[in-house]
Write a structure and sequence with these properties.
Elements (H helix, E strand, L loop, with lengths): L4 H9 L4 H14 L5 H13 L3 H15 L1
Length: about 70
Amino acid sequence: MNIDIRKHIISNFKDAQIDEIKASIESSIKEKDEITLPGLGVFFELLWSNSDENSKEYILNTLKNSLN
């Protein structure tokens, strides 16, 4: 069985409203369920790929500060 997680996640959320995406992210984080990590990774990949250099710098600084 070969599942393309990226295509599946993007397909599932293609027509979702912002509040639905937010609820899904918050629920995934709150539940701390390992199974949701690939989906969050797809969201992060989309965020990163569509961010300008200033936004990427902000993301990196936020991540770095969160790791300390």
